[in-house]
Amino acid sequence: MFLLLLAYFGGILTILSPCILPVLPFVFARSDQPFRKSGLPLLAGMAVTFALVASLATVGGGWVVRANQFGRIAALVLFGIFGLTLLFSSLAERISRPIVSLGSRLSRNPEAGPSIANSFLLGIGTGLLWAPCAGPILGIILTTAALGGASARTVLLLLVYAAGAATSLAIALLAGGKAFAAMKRSLGAEEWIRRVLGVAILAGVVAVAFGLDRGVLSRLSLASTSSFEQRLVDKFRSPGQPTGAPNDQGKNNAAGAMTGPSAVDGSKAPALEKIAGATAWINSAPLTASDLRGKVVLVDFWTYSCINCLRTLPYVKAWNEKYKNDGLVIIGVHTPEFAFEKDEANVRKAVKDLGITYPVAMDNDYRIWRNFQNEYWPADYLIDAQGHIREHHFGEGSYDESEQQIRSLLEEANHKPLPGAASPIAAAGAEAAPDTSDLLSPETYIGYERAEHFASPGGFNQDAPKLYGAPTTLQLNQWAFSGQWKDEGMIATSLSASAAIVYRFHARDLHLVLGPSSDGKPIRFRITLDGKAPGEDHGADTDADGYGTVTDNRLYQLVRQNGTIRDRTFRIEFLSPGVEAFSFTFG
């Protein structure tokens, strides 16, 4: 019930966001007609269409997005005709083509009066154009739908959110209708009002066609309502309650330990059943609670392109080799962040390349993640021989303490002390510990849904190709595209040879998650630091001249500085089109 109320209130707040502006002319164009037969059906069509499209998009894949793009184009054409017939009253009489006649009938038919069916059809078109700003409240609903799959509950939440938006628009529409009626009575301005509305509708069509509702206006909207929504979520969210989506807080805390849900620690209920739900198992047959009874179990949540997870691997692998004969079972739960991490072949290759020999459970449906109410990568849950969670740790660091906890539970289960003590671990390449004393650059996503500090002029052209330019100078942690790119929610794809990404960073290491072209063809690249070849500062995946090749979907270490750490300008240029870029990480 709380989520329903929160969703409804979040929808009401949408009218305060600038990104609703392009949609308002389509709504107010019916303000001079009876609300019950015109405004209400329009708002109902808008709400139902938004809820349906959003529900399908969260679970249906790319075909839904493409279908909605065609729907948006059709709606733009319809509203363009609608606006022109309002602006030029003689247009419908001079042009007799069926589509113009349809536009004239939809705009207004004074003799027949407003039509509920026509208004509902216009509402469907408005719903296809509507791109509400994904603030915290809508973000919770959408990510819950994406992780949980299609269900009546998520569709209901989206419908309630849309109903909240429709409620605020209905109030504005009723108030606007009274204002327009008063203007007509006092000024006799019916024709003037029609033309103003026609201009407003055409302006809205232009704004939607050029992506302003999803670009500039959406960024302004987040600044206007997001903080208020987040305070509401935080106020009513109980401690340890997950938002329903994996997040990167564990990954961003490179310094070490994190606190987590207090309800997990010392859980009295058996926890071994929580590992049920894996979509595949690697290095092992499927493990069940009965298989693990009497064992000390370490459940390690990770994903193979996560730099923080990679830096914990040397320790987890060492614990497995050192204590597996004493009753320790390590289960690596691979919960993906990016789509390519759901591919079993990719994960199997990564497990082999990384030298992981303990069981790995693929958690593509996030069932194990939700069973543990987990929120972080990496995250470790230590389960005793009776099946109870005794300890947990989020993020990197505190390895000696974690090993001591493992030893303590093994000694408790075996009723005897263990020989030896904690030993230092040597790690190299991307698995080496970060230089946290001189780390000033954060993880940075390249897809527009979570991107920050993007500096190319004009911002993103979301989900569509654009020829980008990079500023001559960047501030620390700003980044930009150069050349032709298509930037989508979680991924950017280069569309031309010599397309590049530039980033001003401050860290010892720079990593970038990359994938080859969609047909699997390797893509060569070259990096520079401050306009020069990296030399001794090259990473494990580049040479001294800065050259490297994208062959697989994974994290690539491109820079490891050997000298004094300072602000540097990094540039990577791809020598052929088709590369897929996901996120920067630093260490």
Oligomer: single chain
DSSP summary, beta strand count: 17
Q: What is the average per-residue confidence, as pLDDT, rounded to a whole number? A: 75
Domains counted in the coordinates: how many?
3
* Main sheet overview: 11 strands, antiparallel
Estimated radius of gyration: 28 Å
What can you see in these coordinates?
This protein is α+β, with helices and mostly antiparallel strands and 587 residues long. The chain has 3 domains: 2-231, no CATH class; 249-420, 3-Layer(aba) Sandwich (Glutaredoxin); 437-586, Jelly Rolls (Sandwich), CATH 2.60.120.260. The chain has helices at 2-13, 24-28, 35-60, 62-87, 91-94, 98-107, 116-129, 136-148, 152-187, 190-209, 216-236, 249-252, 289-292, 307-323, 344-353, 367-371, 399-414; strands at residues 280-282, 296-302, 328-334, 360-362, 379-383, 389-394, 444-445, 465-468, 479-487, 492-494, 500-505, 509-515, 523-529, 547-550, 554-560, 568-574, 580-586. The strands form 2 sheets. Strands 7, 8, 9, 10, 11, 12, 13, 14, 15, 16 and 17 form an 11-stranded antiparallel sheet that branches. A hairpin with a 5-residue loop joins β5 and β6. α3 runs antiparallel to α4 (62-87), α4 packs across α6 and α4 (62-87) packs antiparallel against α10.
Briefly summarize what is shown.
It contains 17 helices and 17 strands. The chain is α+β, with helices and mostly antiparallel strands.
